Amino acid sequence: MRSSRENTREFSRGPEFKDPRKRSRMLDAEVGQSIRYHRKRAKMTLMGLADRLGIAYQQVQKYETGVNRVGAGRIMEIAEVLQIPVAFLFEANNGEAADGVVLSASPQCADVETAAQQRQLLTWFLRISNPEKRKMAVSYVGSLVERRDDRTSEGIESA
């Protein structure tokens, strides 16, 4: 007979998390799908990614289909080649991590669209190789930010 704690755990997580090995395989498949998504988004072929990583394209294909598990070091290499933060490879659908947590840099980004825009902005920023252009981008975005003083003086924010 199962304890009420076990029943509660299964109910709160759902039946798919009953077997930790199954959850691990699901995560492997989600990471693989994410690798494929970001590779295609970077307009890179399977062979192109494999060449940059120094491995056979079949190995990348196995990562993407979830057949083979991707090691931590390889995940870091893939993120570097694709010029994305490592955390992006752990995203599942709609900008959520595999455990359902929205991946965002700030708590204000609760909606999926804002989180997606935030990731896109970060991806573009990381592709700027010129340090002067990066400074200009930061300065420009900073100029767009509504300052608390500006919002209060315009009557946007009530005291």
What topology emerges from the helices and strands here?
Layout (H helix, E strand, L loop, with lengths): L3 H10 L6 H22 L4 H8 L3 H9 L6 H11 L29 H15 L4 H14 L3 H6 L6
Describe the structure using short key phrases:
434 Repressor (Amino-terminal Domain); 159 residues; 8 helices; mainly alpha; globular
Provide a quick synopsis of the model:
With 159 residues, the chain is mainly α. It is built from eight helices and no strands.
- CATH homologous superfamily caption of the domain at 4-98: lambda repressor-like DNA-binding domains
Might you state the CATH topology name of the domain at 4-98?
A: 434 Repressor (Amino-terminal Domain)
CATH architecture of the domain at 4-98: Orthogonal Bundle
Q: Termini separation (Å)?
A: 58 Å
Give an overview of the whole structure:
The chain is mostly helical and 159 residues long. It has a domain at 4-98: 434 Repressor (Amino-terminal Domain), CATH 1.10.260. Helix content is 60%, strand content 0%. It contains eight helices and no strands. The chain has helices at 4-13, 20-41, 46-53, 57-65, 72-82, 112-126, 131-144, 148-153. The longest helix has 22 residues, at 20-41. The chain is globular and about 50 Å long.
